[in-house]
Amino acid sequence: MELSADHAWTTLREYGMRRLAHDSFVRFRYGDGMSHSRALAFQMCLSIIPGAIALVGLSSVTHQEQLGQVLQLSLSRLAPGEGGASVIDVLGGGSRRDALALWLGLATSLVSLTSTMAQVERGANRIYGMERDRPFPRKYGRAVILALTAGALMVTGFVAMVGGAAIGGALAQVWDWTDGQHLAFDVVRWPVGFLLALVSTSVLFRAAPRRRQPGHTWLAFGALVTLVLWTSFTLALALYTDRSGTFGSTYGPLTTVMALLLWAFLSSIALFLGLAFAAQLEAARAGEPGPALPDVGPSALEEREPLVGAVGAAGIAALRTAYGLLRRRRR
């Protein structure tokens, strides 16, 4: 029987939202979620930066200047603080580069995007408790398909919701939209972006791990967690970079790069936390004992002894005993 949204909702009510959130974070932590988030963020940046430069440049080479202008204006409006001018300079320089170099940059971006999807599989497998990924051809073949389908649609949906205002302004400026067309875009981008992000994230959650996954509607619960966290992190980062008087002055021309690095890291955390939520929800229905294996490592005293020596460890133990006696006497 394939697990669906009805089973997920029943399990969620029985297990408790607070307990599930706590256990999901524990699963994320012991699945090395932070390390996988850092690796995923790095791959995302390697995809975005050369890809944006190549697309703007190729739009000029292929005589599609209006598309390049839309991308350039959108990114400059999304850049925090004074970073918009730096974005325009960098992207403008891309249009003056050799066509071969631009195509190579686009190819590099696609390779990095494929590695991004492969990193999602690796992180998902560890969160689900599996130590081995798919064999190389299957892993990267699937990563290419995911990058061109679910990955691209997920990014489109997220950007439509959070960056839609900047994109709409750029489209209106380049193609001379009327006020009615601009308003229609602002209204439509929210439901369309939400559905694109939710459905594509559910597909990614089902296709990435090396295991038989529940149905898409079950995984939509984890995808919704990712969507809520991603939106919250993005808006909080935008508010911080917009209101902070020191962020732009500290990093200067690198402000946009630093904001991109932070955004990619927070987005990766949101993705793997959503995966951990879906995994823990499934484990709760199966009656598994906990989100992590029991701790069989050395005690705190055993860990401390090599650091401070036997004499130091004995002294610390004596101090702890004396402190306990003093507390009992005061009572």
Automatic annotation (TrEMBL):
Keyword Transcription among record annotations: no
CC per GO annotation: plasma membrane
Subcellular location: Cell membrane
Pfam families found in the cross-reference section: Virul_fac_BrkB (PF03631)
InterPro entries linked: Virul_fac_BrkB
Listed transmembrane segments: 39-61, 140-167, 187-205, 217-240, 260-279
Bilayer topology: Multi-pass membrane protein
Transmembrane in keyword set: yes
Keywords assigned: Cell membrane, Membrane, Transmembrane, Transmembrane helix
Protein name per UniProt: YihY family inner membrane protein
Taxonomic lineage from the root: Bacteria, Bacillati, Actinomycetota, Actinomycetes, Streptosporangiales
